Amino acid sequence: MAKKDILSKIIQDNTGQIEEITIYPDLQALIPPLTQEELEGLEKSIIEEGCREPILLWENGNELVLVDGHNRYSICKKHGLPYKTRLKEFKNFEVVKDWMISNQLGRRNLTELQKSYLRGLQYNREKKGLGGDRKTEKSGSQNGNLKTVDKLAEEHKVSRNTIIRDEKFALGLDKLTEGNKELKDKILNKSIKVPQSVVQEAVNLDKKSVKKLAEKIQEEQDLPKVSKENKGKKKDTKEKLLENIMQKLKNYTYEKLLEIEKTI
């Protein structure tokens, strides 16, 4: 598509919105999920003050691909609010992914799990670029990989072992939650608490075992949680039940009580 065509496509309608913006799931998956509280706070802010930061788009052929601002874009679309856009040039999808990972790692509101996941992805991707293909890695040619892990460890001010563990966590999480973005988001924002070691171990499991592990994690999350109020009600019910039993026992004869004791 010519520059003139793409620019005309960016001219927004009277609502301040562009109709044709493409969202790729594999790009959106690189955006760390907000907690419900954070999402509600962002929505409230945009409704009251407008969308101040422009939505970042990439011109990919005849598409306008959403690169940054997924949550803001979703909120603006939901409420029919105007938003500004900005175009950024990228060579291809892989360059877009690298930019998105690096951009997200520069944000302050990330949890330690989200940082670990993004650092792991970054290491895995850069390692492939510097260290050649996977066959070369397995054959023992790791000089490039060692430089990559040391570079990222220094960049993120963590140990090289942390970067290596981050990669296992990122690959394990992607494998564990393949096709289930909701589960992935819940693990990353700690709505579901899963030890990192469990996620890392998923890398070494076969597909059947990974599926069972994912189902088990999901089932435990789906179990109804007893609220403090309900716990109090259960306690009251138990105490009343004991009182009723004690009242009935008072009316039993000594012989009857002996019979009951034998059955306990």
What does this entry look like structurally?
The structure is a single chain. With 264 residues, the chain is mainly α. The chain contains 14 helices and three strands. It folds into three domains: 1-109, Alpha-Beta Complex (Conserved hypothetical protein from pyrococcus furiosus pfu- 392566-001, ParB domain); 111-223, no CATH class; 230-263. Helix 3 (36-49) crosses helix 4 (70-79) and helix 6 crosses helix 9. It has a three-stranded mixed beta sheet. It has helices at residues 3-10, 25-28, 36-49, 70-79, 93-105, 112-131, 134-138, 143-156, 160-176, 181-188, 196-201, 207-222, 228-250, 254-263; strands at residues 55-60, 63-68, 85-87. The model is unreliable at 1-11 and 130-141 (pLDDT under 50).
How many structural domains in the coordinates? Answer: 3
Nearest-integer average pLDDT: 80
How far from one another are the termini?
83 Å
- The helix content, as a percent range, equals 55-70%
Number of strands: 3
Q: What structural class do helix, strand and pairing data support?
A: mainly alpha
What form results from the Cα inertia axes?
elongated
* Multimer state: single chain
* Uncertain residue ranges: 1-11, 130-141
Strand order of the largest sheet: 2-1-3
The Rg value, from CA coordinates, equals: 27 Å
Main beta sheet strand tally, sense and closure: 3 strands, mixed
Strand content: 5-15%
Number of helices: 14
Order of helices and strands: HHHEEHEHHHHHHHHHH
